[in-house]
Amino acid sequence: MTADHYAALGLGANASLADIKKAFRQKASFYHPDRNDAPDAAQRFQAVQKAYEVLSDEDTRKAYDDNRRRNLLDDPLQTAREIWQTYSHSIFSP
Asked: Are 31 and 45 within 8 A, CB to CB?
């Protein structure tokens, strides 16, 4: 399963660069292993860092978005599962 960088930051695909920066700062602060004792904090912190790395660069983000659209067309069932997991995760997690 491919990582959903937008979900890692709690954003939609139409997020602005300012939204991405703000979400990154908030999530990185929350999941930083020095501040968060949760067993998955380090893993989630790394996911947030990777998401910011991809989404904050215009060219990398365009390539990522193009790949997401292509995957939607190539495997709609898997895409639907990923969308549902992202949605349910955002509703049921902090």
From this structure: yes
* Mean pLDDT, each 10-residue run in order, the chain (94 residues): 83 94 96 93 95 96 89 71 78 69
Query: Are 9 and 27 a contacting pair, CB within 8 Å?
Result: yes
Tell me the C-alpha distance between 29 and 54, whole Å: 19
Residue 18 lies in a domain: no
Tell me how many domains the chain contains. Answer: 1
DSSP-assigned letters across all residues of the chain: ----HHHHHT--TT--HHHHHHHHHHHHHHH-TTT---TTHHHHHHHHHHHHHHHTSHHHHHHHHHHHHHHHHH-HHHHHHHHHHHHHHHHH--
Q: CB–CB of 12/20 below 8 Å?
A: no
* The two structure tokens encoding residue 4: 């959903």
**pLDDT confidence of residue 94:** 60
Let me know if residue 25 belongs to a domain: no
